Fold this sequence. Notes:
Number of helices: 7
Shape: globular
CATH class: Alpha Beta
Strand content: 15-25%
Radius of gyration: 15 Å
Order of helices and strands: HEHEHEHEEHEEHH
Number of domains: 1
Amino acid sequence: xxxxxxxxxxxxxxxxxxxxxxxxxxxxxxxxxxxxxxxxxxxxxxxxxxxxxxxxxxxxxxxxxxxxxxxxxxxxxxxxxxxxxxxxxxxxxxxxxxxxxxxxxxxxxxxxxxxxxxxxxxxxxxxxxxxxxxxxxxxxxxxxxxxxxxxxxxxxxxxxx
Length: 161
């Protein structure tokens, strides 16, 4: 499994997160190629501190030219969103260029709702918290990009089977 080390580390650190985006689609049964890992994390200072620490231990660095810890500050995230239109903050791994983790800079859907309805899936014995299909469709609808709308159709088709 591609991001096995990330899931293991986040789970070990008891980080509150859910997998969203393409990996969530695949885990829900949609056949789709995706390389990055999209996450939504609970935006508390304690949780974000654990999250950043876990990623740093794994060797991930922020793609933007800032320190990873700057992501913890809600004022920074708001400024990045307002001034730069940033929706996700990206982390990359210098030794594994094809590994990219995108994390929402805010909660387009209340994290409490996401947490309540998440699905726990298991792959290679690893528990992976995954956004529910309903919330995934809602999240993709908010984005509204052509690929996201196609993903909603793919999820709808799965439900018809």
